[in-house]
Specification:
2 copies of one chain form a homodimer. Chain A has 235 residues and is an alpha/beta fold. Helix content of chain A is 35%, strand content 16%.
Protein backbone atom coordinates (compact mmCIF):
# COMPACT_ATOMS: atom_id res chain seq x y z
CA UNK A 1 0.00 0.00 0.00
CA UNK A 2 1.19 3.49 -0.86
CA UNK A 3 2.86 5.70 1.72
CA UNK A 4 1.14 9.08 1.95
CA UNK A 5 2.67 12.24 3.38
CA UNK A 6 0.09 14.93 4.14
CA UNK A 7 1.23 18.42 4.98
CA UNK A 8 -0.60 21.25 6.70
CA UNK A 9 0.24 24.40 8.62
CA UNK A 10 -1.13 23.20 11.91
CA UNK A 11 -1.36 19.39 12.34
CA UNK A 12 -2.74 19.69 15.91
CA UNK A 13 -5.81 21.55 14.61
CA UNK A 14 -6.38 19.24 11.61
CA UNK A 15 -8.83 16.86 13.27
CA UNK A 16 -9.96 15.04 10.10
CA UNK A 17 -6.35 14.41 9.15
CA UNK A 18 -5.55 13.19 12.66
CA UNK A 19 -8.50 10.80 12.51
CA UNK A 20 -7.15 9.38 9.24
CA UNK A 21 -3.75 9.08 10.82
CA UNK A 22 -5.36 7.07 13.64
CA UNK A 23 -6.77 4.61 11.07
CA UNK A 24 -3.73 4.39 8.81
CA UNK A 25 -0.75 5.14 11.04
CA UNK A 26 1.50 2.82 9.02
CA UNK A 27 0.81 4.57 5.75
CA UNK A 28 0.07 8.17 6.57
CA UNK A 29 2.59 10.68 7.86
CA UNK A 30 1.48 14.19 8.74
CA UNK A 31 4.14 16.87 8.32
CA UNK A 32 3.93 20.48 9.48
CA UNK A 33 4.46 22.74 6.45
CA UNK A 34 3.57 26.32 5.60
CA UNK A 35 3.98 26.55 1.81
CA UNK A 36 4.71 30.28 2.06
CA UNK A 37 7.96 29.54 3.97
CA UNK A 38 10.72 28.44 1.62
CA UNK A 39 12.91 27.08 4.46
CA UNK A 40 10.09 24.82 5.73
CA UNK A 41 9.59 23.42 2.23
CA UNK A 42 13.31 22.70 1.89
CA UNK A 43 13.35 20.96 5.30
CA UNK A 44 10.27 18.88 4.40
CA UNK A 45 11.87 17.78 1.12
CA UNK A 46 15.01 16.78 3.01
CA UNK A 47 12.94 14.79 5.51
CA UNK A 48 11.10 12.96 2.70
CA UNK A 49 14.39 12.30 0.88
CA UNK A 50 15.92 10.80 4.01
CA UNK A 51 12.88 8.63 4.83
CA UNK A 52 11.76 7.55 1.34
CA UNK A 53 14.44 8.61 -1.18
CA UNK A 54 11.81 9.42 -3.83
CA UNK A 55 8.25 10.59 -4.47
CA UNK A 56 5.78 9.18 -7.04
CA UNK A 57 3.04 11.82 -6.85
CA UNK A 58 3.00 15.39 -5.58
CA UNK A 59 -0.38 17.13 -5.24
CA UNK A 60 -0.31 20.84 -4.44
CA UNK A 61 -3.77 21.57 -3.10
CA UNK A 62 -3.26 24.43 -0.64
CA UNK A 63 -5.04 27.64 -1.58
CA UNK A 64 -7.10 30.56 -0.32
CA UNK A 65 -9.78 32.64 -2.05
CA UNK A 66 -8.47 35.86 -0.54
CA UNK A 67 -7.36 36.85 2.99
CA UNK A 68 -10.92 38.09 3.60
CA UNK A 69 -12.18 34.55 2.72
CA UNK A 70 -14.32 36.08 -0.04
CA UNK A 71 -13.30 36.85 -3.62
CA UNK A 72 -13.33 40.51 -4.67
CA UNK A 73 -16.59 41.35 -6.45
CA UNK A 74 -15.19 44.55 -7.96
CA UNK A 75 -12.04 46.51 -8.64
CA UNK A 76 -12.77 48.77 -5.68
CA UNK A 77 -12.22 45.82 -3.35
CA UNK A 78 -8.78 44.85 -4.63
CA UNK A 79 -5.69 45.80 -2.65
CA UNK A 80 -1.99 45.27 -3.20
CA UNK A 81 -1.84 43.43 0.12
CA UNK A 82 -4.73 41.04 -0.61
CA UNK A 83 -3.31 40.23 -4.03
CA UNK A 84 0.15 39.68 -2.60
CA UNK A 85 -0.97 37.25 0.12
CA UNK A 86 -3.15 35.28 -2.29
CA UNK A 87 -0.35 35.00 -4.85
CA UNK A 88 2.14 33.93 -2.15
CA UNK A 89 -0.18 31.12 -1.01
CA UNK A 90 -1.72 29.92 -4.27
CA UNK A 91 1.05 30.51 -6.79
CA UNK A 92 4.47 30.97 -5.25
CA UNK A 93 3.99 28.22 -2.63
CA UNK A 94 3.21 25.44 -5.13
CA UNK A 95 6.11 26.47 -7.40
CA UNK A 96 8.58 26.51 -4.51
CA UNK A 97 7.22 23.05 -3.56
CA UNK A 98 8.03 21.92 -7.12
CA UNK A 99 11.54 23.36 -6.83
CA UNK A 100 12.43 21.28 -3.77
CA UNK A 101 10.48 18.12 -4.59
CA UNK A 102 11.39 17.88 -8.31
CA UNK A 103 14.60 15.92 -7.59
CA UNK A 104 12.55 13.37 -5.60
CA UNK A 105 9.96 13.15 -8.40
CA UNK A 106 12.76 12.55 -10.92
CA UNK A 107 13.70 9.52 -8.79
CA UNK A 108 10.10 8.18 -8.60
CA UNK A 109 9.06 4.61 -9.43
CA UNK A 110 6.32 5.54 -11.90
CA UNK A 111 3.65 3.97 -9.67
CA UNK A 112 0.91 6.36 -10.82
CA UNK A 113 -0.45 6.89 -14.32
CA UNK A 114 -0.28 4.88 -17.52
CA UNK A 115 3.12 4.14 -18.99
CA UNK A 116 3.98 4.27 -22.68
CA UNK A 117 5.37 1.01 -24.10
CA UNK A 118 8.27 3.14 -25.41
CA UNK A 119 10.67 3.48 -22.48
CA UNK A 120 11.88 6.92 -23.64
CA UNK A 121 8.39 8.28 -23.02
CA UNK A 122 7.82 6.72 -19.62
CA UNK A 123 7.52 8.89 -16.52
CA UNK A 124 8.87 8.46 -13.01
CA UNK A 125 6.25 10.57 -11.23
CA UNK A 126 3.33 12.97 -11.51
CA UNK A 127 3.04 16.55 -10.28
CA UNK A 128 -0.49 17.91 -9.89
CA UNK A 129 -1.26 21.54 -9.25
CA UNK A 130 -4.87 21.98 -8.22
CA UNK A 131 -5.94 25.12 -10.00
CA UNK A 132 -9.55 25.95 -10.87
CA UNK A 133 -11.85 26.50 -13.82
CA UNK A 134 -12.09 30.15 -12.74
CA UNK A 135 -8.32 30.29 -13.37
CA UNK A 136 -9.02 29.79 -17.09
CA UNK A 137 -8.70 33.14 -18.88
CA UNK A 138 -10.48 31.83 -21.97
CA UNK A 139 -13.41 30.52 -19.92
CA UNK A 140 -13.79 33.71 -17.85
CA UNK A 141 -17.16 35.26 -18.64
CA UNK A 142 -18.14 36.67 -15.24
CA UNK A 143 -15.08 38.54 -13.92
CA UNK A 144 -14.59 39.25 -10.22
CA UNK A 145 -12.48 37.20 -7.79
CA UNK A 146 -9.39 39.06 -9.06
CA UNK A 147 -6.83 37.63 -6.64
CA UNK A 148 -7.99 34.02 -6.89
CA UNK A 149 -8.37 34.03 -10.68
CA UNK A 150 -4.99 35.69 -11.20
CA UNK A 151 -3.20 33.37 -8.77
CA UNK A 152 -4.59 30.30 -10.56
CA UNK A 153 -3.81 31.64 -14.07
CA UNK A 154 -0.22 32.24 -12.93
CA UNK A 155 -0.10 28.71 -11.44
CA UNK A 156 -1.34 27.34 -14.77
CA UNK A 157 1.62 29.07 -16.45
CA UNK A 158 3.97 27.65 -13.79
CA UNK A 159 2.58 24.15 -14.47
CA UNK A 160 3.10 24.55 -18.23
CA UNK A 161 6.68 25.66 -17.56
CA UNK A 162 7.23 22.71 -15.20
CA UNK A 163 5.88 20.28 -17.81
CA UNK A 164 8.52 21.54 -20.24
CA UNK A 165 11.44 21.54 -17.80
CA UNK A 166 10.55 18.23 -16.12
CA UNK A 167 9.71 16.64 -19.50
CA UNK A 168 13.34 16.95 -20.58
CA UNK A 169 16.14 14.56 -19.65
CA UNK A 170 16.27 10.87 -18.86
CA UNK A 171 13.64 10.80 -16.13
CA UNK A 172 10.41 12.62 -16.90
CA UNK A 173 7.66 13.94 -14.64
CA UNK A 174 4.07 14.43 -15.87
CA UNK A 175 2.85 17.88 -14.75
CA UNK A 176 -0.82 18.85 -14.99
CA UNK A 177 -3.37 21.38 -13.72
CA UNK A 178 -6.55 19.85 -12.30
CA UNK A 179 -9.88 21.50 -11.51
CA UNK A 180 -11.54 19.61 -8.63
CA UNK A 181 -15.03 21.05 -9.08
CA UNK A 182 -16.70 22.97 -6.27
CA UNK A 183 -15.94 20.92 -3.19
CA UNK A 184 -17.55 21.11 0.24
CA UNK A 185 -14.53 22.64 2.02
CA UNK A 186 -13.84 25.81 4.00
CA UNK A 187 -12.49 27.55 0.88
CA UNK A 188 -15.82 27.59 -0.94
CA UNK A 189 -18.05 27.67 2.18
CA UNK A 190 -19.23 31.30 1.74
CA UNK A 191 -20.65 30.33 -1.66
CA UNK A 192 -22.27 26.95 -0.92
CA UNK A 193 -25.84 28.23 -0.83
CA UNK A 194 -25.43 29.47 -4.42
CA UNK A 195 -24.21 26.07 -5.66
CA UNK A 196 -26.80 23.49 -6.79
CA UNK A 197 -26.51 20.47 -4.50
CA UNK A 198 -25.45 18.05 -7.23
CA UNK A 199 -22.61 20.41 -8.16
CA UNK A 200 -21.25 20.69 -4.61
CA UNK A 201 -18.98 17.66 -4.34
CA UNK A 202 -17.94 15.88 -1.17
CA UNK A 203 -14.14 15.79 -0.82
CA UNK A 204 -14.31 11.99 -1.28
CA UNK A 205 -16.19 12.26 -4.59
CA UNK A 206 -13.85 14.93 -5.95
CA UNK A 207 -10.73 13.01 -4.88
CA UNK A 208 -12.06 9.86 -6.57
CA UNK A 209 -12.65 11.79 -9.79
CA UNK A 210 -9.18 13.31 -9.66
CA UNK A 211 -7.50 9.97 -8.88
CA UNK A 212 -9.28 8.44 -11.89
CA UNK A 213 -7.67 11.12 -14.05
CA UNK A 214 -4.26 10.79 -12.38
CA UNK A 215 -4.26 7.02 -12.91
CA UNK A 216 -4.62 7.55 -16.67
CA UNK A 217 -2.00 10.30 -17.08
CA UNK A 218 1.07 9.79 -19.25
CA UNK A 219 3.65 11.98 -21.00
CA UNK A 220 1.16 12.64 -23.81
CA UNK A 221 -1.02 14.53 -21.34
CA UNK A 222 1.66 16.55 -19.58
CA UNK A 223 1.27 20.33 -19.55
CA UNK A 224 -2.53 20.22 -19.83
CA UNK A 225 -5.46 21.44 -17.75
CA UNK A 226 -8.23 18.96 -16.92
CA UNK A 227 -11.52 19.24 -15.03
CA UNK A 228 -12.72 16.61 -12.53
CA UNK A 229 -14.63 14.82 -15.33
CA UNK A 230 -11.52 14.49 -17.52
CA UNK A 231 -12.52 17.21 -19.97
CA UNK A 232 -9.71 19.53 -21.06
CA UNK A 233 -10.03 23.20 -20.11
CA UNK A 234 -8.75 26.16 -22.14
CA UNK A 235 -6.00 28.40 -20.73
CA UNK B 1 -2.84 68.11 -29.17
CA UNK B 2 -3.18 65.42 -26.52
CA UNK B 3 -1.95 65.96 -22.99
CA UNK B 4 0.39 63.16 -21.92
CA UNK B 5 1.23 62.25 -18.35
CA UNK B 6 4.30 60.04 -18.06
CA UNK B 7 5.13 58.38 -14.77
CA UNK B 8 8.37 56.89 -13.53
CA UNK B 9 10.00 56.05 -10.20
CA UNK B 10 12.79 58.60 -10.55
CA UNK B 11 12.09 61.54 -12.93
CA UNK B 12 15.50 63.15 -12.25
CA UNK B 13 17.30 60.09 -13.64
CA UNK B 14 14.98 59.69 -16.67
CA UNK B 15 17.06 61.71 -19.11
CA UNK B 16 15.18 60.68 -22.30
CA UNK B 17 11.89 61.63 -20.67
CA UNK B 18 13.32 64.95 -19.48
CA UNK B 19 14.52 65.69 -23.02
CA UNK B 20 11.00 65.05 -24.34
CA UNK B 21 9.64 67.29 -21.61
CA UNK B 22 12.01 70.01 -22.83
CA UNK B 23 10.54 69.75 -26.34
CA UNK B 24 6.89 69.39 -25.37
CA UNK B 25 6.56 71.16 -22.02
CA UNK B 26 2.98 72.22 -22.80
CA UNK B 27 1.80 68.70 -23.47
CA UNK B 28 3.94 66.40 -21.36
CA UNK B 29 3.81 66.17 -17.59
CA UNK B 30 6.21 63.87 -15.75
CA UNK B 31 4.90 62.46 -12.46
CA UNK B 32 6.89 60.53 -9.87
CA UNK B 33 5.19 57.17 -9.31
CA UNK B 34 6.29 53.81 -8.01
CA UNK B 35 3.57 51.38 -9.11
CA UNK B 36 4.34 49.07 -6.18
CA UNK B 37 3.18 51.75 -3.71
CA UNK B 38 -0.60 51.91 -3.50
CA UNK B 39 -0.62 55.32 -1.76
CA UNK B 40 1.48 56.90 -4.56
CA UNK B 41 -0.94 55.56 -7.18
CA UNK B 42 -3.91 56.96 -5.28
CA UNK B 43 -2.18 60.35 -4.99
CA UNK B 44 -1.30 60.39 -8.70
CA UNK B 45 -4.90 59.58 -9.64
CA UNK B 46 -6.10 62.43 -7.42
CA UNK B 47 -3.62 64.83 -9.05
CA UNK B 48 -4.77 63.82 -12.55
CA UNK B 49 -8.42 64.12 -11.50
CA UNK B 50 -7.83 67.63 -10.17
CA UNK B 51 -5.85 68.80 -13.24
CA UNK B 52 -7.73 67.04 -16.06
CA UNK B 53 -10.91 65.50 -14.62
CA UNK B 54 -10.65 62.46 -16.91
CA UNK B 55 -8.31 60.15 -18.81
CA UNK B 56 -8.74 58.82 -22.37
CA UNK B 57 -5.95 56.22 -22.47
CA UNK B 58 -4.00 54.44 -19.74
CA UNK B 59 -0.97 52.39 -20.75
CA UNK B 60 0.63 50.26 -18.05
CA UNK B 61 4.11 49.54 -19.37
CA UNK B 62 6.25 49.19 -16.24
CA UNK B 63 7.81 45.75 -15.79
CA UNK B 64 10.93 43.82 -14.81
CA UNK B 65 12.21 40.44 -15.99
CA UNK B 66 13.27 39.48 -12.48
CA UNK B 67 15.15 41.31 -9.70
CA UNK B 68 18.38 39.73 -11.07
CA UNK B 69 17.60 41.35 -14.47
CA UNK B 70 17.68 37.87 -16.04
CA UNK B 71 14.84 35.39 -16.33
CA UNK B 72 15.25 32.09 -14.47
CA UNK B 73 16.52 29.38 -16.83
CA UNK B 74 15.52 26.54 -14.50
CA UNK B 75 13.50 25.66 -11.43
CA UNK B 76 16.66 25.68 -9.31
CA UNK B 77 16.95 29.44 -9.88
CA UNK B 78 13.46 30.34 -8.69
CA UNK B 79 12.94 31.82 -5.24
CA UNK B 80 9.88 32.98 -3.34
CA UNK B 81 11.46 36.43 -3.06
CA UNK B 82 12.22 36.82 -6.78
CA UNK B 83 8.73 35.68 -7.71
CA UNK B 84 7.16 37.99 -5.17
CA UNK B 85 9.02 41.12 -6.34
CA UNK B 86 8.30 40.38 -10.02
CA UNK B 87 4.59 39.81 -9.35
CA UNK B 88 4.38 43.02 -7.28
CA UNK B 89 5.88 45.05 -10.13
CA UNK B 90 4.41 43.39 -13.23
CA UNK B 91 1.00 42.23 -12.02
CA UNK B 92 -0.17 43.89 -8.84
CA UNK B 93 1.10 47.36 -9.83
CA UNK B 94 -0.87 47.56 -13.10
CA UNK B 95 -4.06 46.27 -11.43
CA UNK B 96 -3.81 48.79 -8.60
CA UNK B 97 -3.28 51.47 -11.29
CA UNK B 98 -6.54 50.28 -12.90
CA UNK B 99 -8.32 50.48 -9.54
CA UNK B 100 -7.51 54.16 -9.01
CA UNK B 101 -7.65 55.33 -12.64
CA UNK B 102 -10.83 53.44 -13.68
CA UNK B 103 -13.14 56.27 -12.47
CA UNK B 104 -11.16 58.72 -14.66
CA UNK B 105 -11.32 56.36 -17.64
CA UNK B 106 -15.10 56.05 -17.16
CA UNK B 107 -15.20 59.84 -17.60
CA UNK B 108 -13.02 59.84 -20.75
CA UNK B 109 -13.94 61.58 -24.03
CA UNK B 110 -13.44 58.54 -26.26
CA UNK B 111 -10.60 60.28 -28.11
CA UNK B 112 -8.79 57.02 -28.93
CA UNK B 113 -10.02 54.03 -30.91
CA UNK B 114 -12.87 53.50 -33.33
CA UNK B 115 -16.40 54.13 -32.11
CA UNK B 116 -19.41 51.99 -32.94
CA UNK B 117 -22.27 53.86 -34.64
CA UNK B 118 -24.49 52.37 -31.90
CA UNK B 119 -24.08 54.67 -28.90
CA UNK B 120 -24.65 51.85 -26.42
CA UNK B 121 -21.44 50.19 -27.64
CA UNK B 122 -19.26 53.30 -27.61
CA UNK B 123 -16.35 53.59 -25.20
CA UNK B 124 -15.05 56.50 -23.17
CA UNK B 125 -11.46 55.33 -22.86
CA UNK B 126 -8.92 52.56 -23.41
CA UNK B 127 -6.84 50.68 -20.85
CA UNK B 128 -3.77 48.89 -22.21
CA UNK B 129 -1.73 46.45 -20.18
CA UNK B 130 1.56 45.69 -21.90
CA UNK B 131 2.04 42.00 -21.36
CA UNK B 132 4.18 39.78 -23.59
CA UNK B 133 3.95 36.84 -25.95
CA UNK B 134 5.93 34.81 -23.39
CA UNK B 135 2.98 35.45 -21.05
CA UNK B 136 0.82 33.25 -23.31
CA UNK B 137 0.41 29.81 -21.71
CA UNK B 138 -0.81 28.28 -24.97
CA UNK B 139 2.16 29.65 -26.92
CA UNK B 140 4.75 28.55 -24.34
CA UNK B 141 6.99 25.92 -25.93
CA UNK B 142 10.34 26.75 -24.34
CA UNK B 143 9.69 27.16 -20.61
CA UNK B 144 12.03 29.13 -18.33
CA UNK B 145 11.56 32.74 -17.23
CA UNK B 146 9.18 31.53 -14.52
CA UNK B 147 8.60 34.85 -12.73
CA UNK B 148 8.16 36.93 -15.87
CA UNK B 149 5.90 34.44 -17.65
CA UNK B 150 3.74 33.92 -14.56
CA UNK B 151 3.45 37.65 -13.86
CA UNK B 152 2.28 38.32 -17.42
CA UNK B 153 -0.18 35.39 -17.47
CA UNK B 154 -1.69 36.74 -14.25
CA UNK B 155 -1.84 40.24 -15.78
CA UNK B 156 -3.62 38.77 -18.80
CA UNK B 157 -6.25 37.35 -16.42
CA UNK B 158 -6.50 40.75 -14.69
CA UNK B 159 -7.06 42.42 -18.07
CA UNK B 160 -9.79 39.93 -18.98
CA UNK B 161 -11.46 40.61 -15.64
CA UNK B 162 -11.14 44.38 -16.18
CA UNK B 163 -12.68 44.09 -19.65
CA UNK B 164 -15.74 42.44 -18.07
CA UNK B 165 -16.12 44.86 -15.15
CA UNK B 166 -15.36 48.02 -17.16
CA UNK B 167 -17.51 46.80 -20.07
CA UNK B 168 -20.60 46.99 -17.88
CA UNK B 169 -22.59 50.12 -17.14
CA UNK B 170 -23.29 53.29 -19.06
CA UNK B 171 -19.70 54.28 -19.77
CA UNK B 172 -17.46 51.54 -21.08
CA UNK B 173 -13.68 51.19 -21.18
CA UNK B 174 -11.90 49.00 -23.75
CA UNK B 175 -9.30 46.83 -21.95
CA UNK B 176 -6.66 44.89 -23.89
CA UNK B 177 -3.31 43.12 -23.48
CA UNK B 178 -0.65 44.15 -25.99
CA UNK B 179 2.67 42.46 -26.84
CA UNK B 180 5.12 45.14 -27.98
CA UNK B 181 7.66 42.78 -29.61
CA UNK B 182 11.24 42.66 -28.39
CA UNK B 183 12.16 46.31 -27.93
CA UNK B 184 15.61 47.86 -27.49
CA UNK B 185 15.18 48.77 -23.81
CA UNK B 186 16.97 47.94 -20.57
CA UNK B 187 14.51 45.14 -19.82
CA UNK B 188 15.59 42.98 -22.74
CA UNK B 189 19.21 44.21 -22.93
CA UNK B 190 20.81 40.98 -21.59
CA UNK B 191 19.23 39.10 -24.52
CA UNK B 192 19.81 41.52 -27.42
CA UNK B 193 22.70 39.61 -28.95
CA UNK B 194 20.41 36.57 -29.38
CA UNK B 195 17.72 38.59 -31.20
CA UNK B 196 17.97 38.96 -35.00
CA UNK B 197 18.41 42.66 -35.79
CA UNK B 198 15.13 42.98 -37.70
CA UNK B 199 13.29 41.55 -34.69
CA UNK B 200 14.80 43.98 -32.18
CA UNK B 201 12.51 47.01 -32.46
CA UNK B 202 13.38 50.59 -31.62
CA UNK B 203 10.98 52.01 -28.99
CA UNK B 204 9.66 54.40 -31.69
CA UNK B 205 8.83 51.57 -34.08
CA UNK B 206 7.11 49.49 -31.40
CA UNK B 207 5.11 52.47 -30.11
CA UNK B 208 3.96 53.28 -33.65
CA UNK B 209 2.79 49.70 -34.12
CA UNK B 210 0.96 49.73 -30.79
CA UNK B 211 -0.67 53.12 -31.46
CA UNK B 212 -1.91 51.79 -34.82
CA UNK B 213 -3.65 48.99 -32.93
CA UNK B 214 -4.97 51.30 -30.20
CA UNK B 215 -6.44 53.68 -32.78
CA UNK B 216 -8.55 50.81 -34.18
CA UNK B 217 -9.79 49.39 -30.88
CA UNK B 218 -13.48 49.30 -30.03
CA UNK B 219 -15.75 47.39 -27.63
CA UNK B 220 -15.73 44.42 -30.02
CA UNK B 221 -12.03 43.95 -29.27
CA UNK B 222 -12.09 44.41 -25.51
CA UNK B 223 -10.66 41.60 -23.39
CA UNK B 224 -8.29 40.37 -26.10
CA UNK B 225 -4.54 39.91 -26.44
CA UNK B 226 -2.84 41.38 -29.52
CA UNK B 227 0.74 41.38 -30.78
CA UNK B 228 2.46 44.50 -32.22
CA UNK B 229 1.37 43.45 -35.75
CA UNK B 230 -2.30 43.24 -34.76
CA UNK B 231 -2.46 39.44 -34.71
CA UNK B 232 -4.42 37.94 -31.82
CA UNK B 233 -2.46 35.80 -29.35
CA UNK B 234 -3.82 32.77 -27.44
CA UNK B 235 -4.10 32.86 -23.64
Amino acid sequence: MAKVIATCRNPEAASALQALHGLYAQNLTVLRLDATREAEIRDAAEAVAKEHGHLDLLINSGAMLHPSARGETSLREISAEGLSITLATNTIGPLVMAKYFAPLLRKGTGAFGDQFPDQAKQHTAILVNLTAKVGSIGDNALGGWYSYRMSKAALNMATKNLSIELGRGKTKVVCVCLHPGTVDTDLSKPYHRNVPRVKLFTPEYSVNCLMNIIEKLDMGKTGKFFAWDGSELPW
